[in-house]
Amino acid sequence: MLRYLKNAKEIAVDLEHHDVHSYVGLVALMQISTREKDWIVDTLVPWREDLQVLNEVFTDPSIIKVLHGSNSDIVWLQRDLGLYIVGLFDTYHASRLLGYPKHGLAYLLHRFANYETDKRYQMADWRMRPLPEQMYGYARSDTHFLLYIFDNLRNELLKNSDTATPTGNLIDSVRDLSKGEALQRYERQFYDAKTGSGPFGWYSMLGRSSSHFSREQLSIFRAVHEWRDKTARQQDEGLFHILSNHSIFTIAREMPMRLPDLLGYCHPISAAMRKAAPELVGVIQEARAAAADGPEMKEVAQPRGQAHSQNDTPLASNPPTVNHLPAANRTASISGNTRSNTPAALPISRFWGSTIGVERTAISKSPSFNESGGPCLAIPLPPLTAEVYEKNDVDVSSGLAIEPTNAGARAEHQYTKKRKPREDDVFIVKE
What we know:
- This protein is an alpha/beta fold.
């Protein structure tokens, strides 16, 4: 196979990955196709380490490697097989640049090869040996048509490219996007039970949830989350097969102290969970008893790096330094308690005057300007809604007529459609 692949100009590659019943996940199958042959490579056999010889082909820039949705495949190849990709063409990015309504491989197979995939095997257990004939055919189809799809996409990209502009070459755009995927590097991530960092850590779960726990509930939440991670590692089982995120939140909120109550809050209940449930009850009881010495929700929910000790000077006592910069150069930098940024709002606008009704003052006839010559706006300009473009012949202070909106513009509100225009309905920005 290696000798044959070295003579190819393009190859198609795909992986079948399994992580439902594995803590880390593993590559269970690799498919490689040329324009004449298809290979199905078993990556679970002991000699899988010898597959690193494929780097002679995979890192050869003269051979185009065609993958679809390579974001995860690149990492899995490095992690499990020690393989790296040079010269990648990702058909997913090509479909997006061409504006297709869908971007999945199933859609491209239907569009170009009139081939319908069986979606039942997308989440199949690819560790199964021997593979059933249907799964074998499904895996083979992922790369068998991919080079033909690549040809069609490349022709469309060339047809729709505008080489007269720097960014108009769509082939180069796909190449750059694919290069970004190939430059990914696998790095082993660690789970820290104390801080909740790491993949699927409890800190990010709290950040995505609106739950507000008491001290006891938070203690149970962290303990159950750590127990799930520990159990999944020991059994080499998928995290969500042991216990779902939803169940962790429910257990923390309800704080069950008996086994029947615990099982009532776990849906679905896997065999691994049912076997380990008595141990989890003990974990919950210990976490509730130790909650008095644990942190509160507001302590762990505080953004990292923003915590202040009791001796820190309050931010309000050290007002920020304001630099009025042009919009294109406006940046925000934080150093200690000093911030440099254009303010979101001022009590009285330097351009509009008082607009919030606190103190009514006359609008300044001549706005103040910053050092660069631009007006210092403390609030954004009012949006130009459909009411502004209600009539084509409305004269504004500049004397220019408003052109009608095109077909792609946002539809007018029903109020604007029904409302009769008034003779004095003129929008004047500034006199």
